[in-house]
Design goal:
There is one protein chain. It contains seven helices and seven strands. It is of the alpha/beta class and 208 residues long. A seven-stranded mixed β-sheet has the order 3-2-1-4-5-7-6, sandwiched between helices. Helix 5 links the parallel strand 4 and strand 5. Helix 4 crosses helix 5. The relative contact order is 0.16. The structure holds S-adenosylmethionine. S-adenosylmethionine (SAM) binds next to helix 4 and helix 7.
């Protein structure tokens, strides 16, 4: 954490020009909310070297997992080359979404968010009108917002919240993970337990 996180952390000195936080030029900026163990974020960054990905996670174990995968402990002090197009934000993703330049994201990912199934916890769900407004501000017209969940309450909730907004086009969700979506750890657990997943690909409308 001490040696590697500072090298990968998205420094908010770059908040006005996030593309400058990456080592080389990037074609577009993507963001993932709640990367968990980081498998999806690492796979996205590796498969798409021309993009810059800011991956967000508040849970320290998640940060440790992604760092351990990037820097395996081989008993030496050497830190191998880190992905030049990956940056980590170890705070609430909503704070970053609110501060990035408007229309700066080409893609946003929300993979298997915490379901908070009790109705008294509805406000804790990431899929919430207030956060849709944050996403709508940050995602550029034509940009994609990919959302996946296996939780039946959250699936119904997501459909309801999306039906009530006008910022994104909402094609019907896929029931099988589209080919270019990397898998995630939560998805693997859900599929093993026989819980069907839904995968939305929203498209940011222009002018709303
Ligand atoms: C259920 S886990 C899913 C992890 C991963 N996406 C996967 O599919 O394996 C949800 C993760 O989102 C993180 N999280 C929830 N709200 C967040 C927020 N506002 N900002 C950053 N991370 C958040 C949690 O700490 C948790 O690790």
């Amino acid at each position: 954490m001490q040696a590697v996180l500072p090298r990968l952390r998205f420094d908010d000195a770059f908040i006005e020009a996030p593309s400058r936080s990456f080592e080389g030029a990037i074609e577009s900026l993507w963001m993932e909310v709640g990367f968990g163990g980081g498998e999806h974020a690492r796979a996205l960054a590796a498969a798409n070297p021309a993009i810059g990905l800011i991956a967000c996670e508040v849970f320290e174990n998640g940060i440790c997992s992604i760092l351990s995968a990037l820097v395996p402990d081989d008993g030496t002090e050497d830190v191998p080359a880190l992905p030049p197009n990956l940056r980590l934000w170890d705070q609430d993703a909503r704070g970053l979404l609110a501060r990035l330049p408007p229309a700066s994201l080409s893609r946003l990912y929300l993979m298997f968010p915490d379901p908070w199934p009790k109705s008294r916890h509805v406000k804790r769900r990431f899929m919430h009108p207030e956060n849709i407004a944050l996403a709508a501000r940050a995602v550029k017209p034509g940009g994609l917002w990919r959302i996946a969940t296996d939780d039946p309450t959250y699936q119904a909730w997501t459909a309801d919240v999306l039906a009530a907004q006008h910022a994104f086009d909402v094609p019907p969700p896929a029931t099988l993970r589209p080919e270019d979506w990397p898998p995630t750890r939560y998805e693997a657990k859900a599929l093993l337990a026989g819980r069907p997943c839904l995968y939305w690909s929203l498209i940011r409308r222009s002018g709303s």
